Amino acid sequence: MYRIFLFLITITISYSQTYIGGDIYEDTTLTSSGNPYYLNDDLYIGSDVTLTIDQGVEIYILGNNLITVEGNLMINGAEESQILFEPISGPSVSYWHGIEMLSGSVVSMNYVSLNSAQHIIYTQINDINLQINNSNLSSSNYLMLGEGSNHYFNIEIYNSLIDVNYGIHVDSQYGGCSFIIENNDIYTSRYFMELDHAAASNTFEITNNYFEYENEGGHSHIKIWDNCNGPWYDVSLNISYNLFNFAFSEAETDPRIIDLRTCSYENENSYDYYIHNNTFIGNSDYMAIAMHERDYPEIFIDNINNNFIYNNIFTGFQTAIYSPNLDDLAYHIMYNNFFNNSSNISGAIQDQGQFGEEFGDMFVNLNGYPSDANMNIYSDPIFDGDSYHLSSESPCIDAGYPGIETDLDGTINDIGYA
User: Fold this and answer.
1) Which end of the chain has a smaller Cβ tally under 10 Å, C or N?
2) Residues in CB range of 394: below 8 A, 6 or more apart
3) For residues 179 and 176, what is the distance between their CA atoms, to the nearest angstrom?
4) Distance CA 17, CA 1 (A)
5) 256-272 pLDDT per residue, tens
6) CB atoms closer than 10 angstroms to residue 98
7) Distances in Å between the alpha carbon of 23 and those of 29, 284, 379?
8) How far apart are CA 40 and CA 292, in angstroms?
9) 138 burial level (CB within 10 Å; 0-12, 13-18, 19+)
């Protein structure tokens, strides 16, 4: 056995085993030639330093260790040669701490299999950049936990499988942040996104994902609440082309799939909000969308885009859309399909204009199907099997809002996610 000291990182090699831990103060690369690696101590990556982990590296965690990043952590796997992070006791026995990101840090994961972390990402500092691509993140407690004062961070997750108890939770005031969640399969037993204290200038892009609750369910799945301690403005929200499949979830008290709360202030408002082309599959315990404006509902309504909620399918819910005080929100709910819900709309948006199922056969939409004044339809969407794609007989085909891009075949946009 012999021991190599690389700056302040300690690497011990014995019988083709490499033990890692300690502090890194100079650029370092781990390659598969050192497999298997054993993390037997906390690991710290210094400021302006990059630790690169090459494809095919296998890292086994001995104990409840933590990787702290103040510089850059680049985990560069490949489709046929992924990078593994796993506790030595097995993926279902105990959690390890995960990765902590400090101010100015960058973490990039590509083709990574990481499991059994208490927090895959933890931070309580400003100015971080996280990008996850083509990865399998499973059997962990949190995908990301942000505490303290968090501002100006960028979170991007693409083409990954996420199977965790809790998704992204930021329990502090935050502003100037970007969340891009695209083309993922996401399974959680509690919620995917819980952001309690939003401030100004945040961007949310949640597109082309599959969401499913497992086990308990209960909390709002995507919860974005203003902190109400300052203006909520310059907010961009796009939730589109997702399938939310909660048909078999066990619900707790008053669960919602999308739960939005704002606190508007005069002359400081810009809301670029879109919830469109999603398919919401629920059960009799669930509410699909809840929307609440605490202080100035008329200001919020005056500043959102004209077509806020459109081209969605809502089926199987206790309540599809609820708002306690945004009565004029009804005029921004257009070209949707409501079917087999105990209540399609509830709260202040009821009884607004010729909107709702009682008016569902008084008008005709663009494909000639009976609708209300807002071009919403109230018939079986007729899915083609369990994929929730539309069958050729579906009334949702060519029934969407004509003001957006056409389908690939050049026809009017369909209602639903696919």
Assistant:
1) N
2) 381, 382, 383, 414
3) 10
4) 10
5) 898 887 765 554 556 67
6) 25
7) 14, 53, 62
8) 49
9) middle
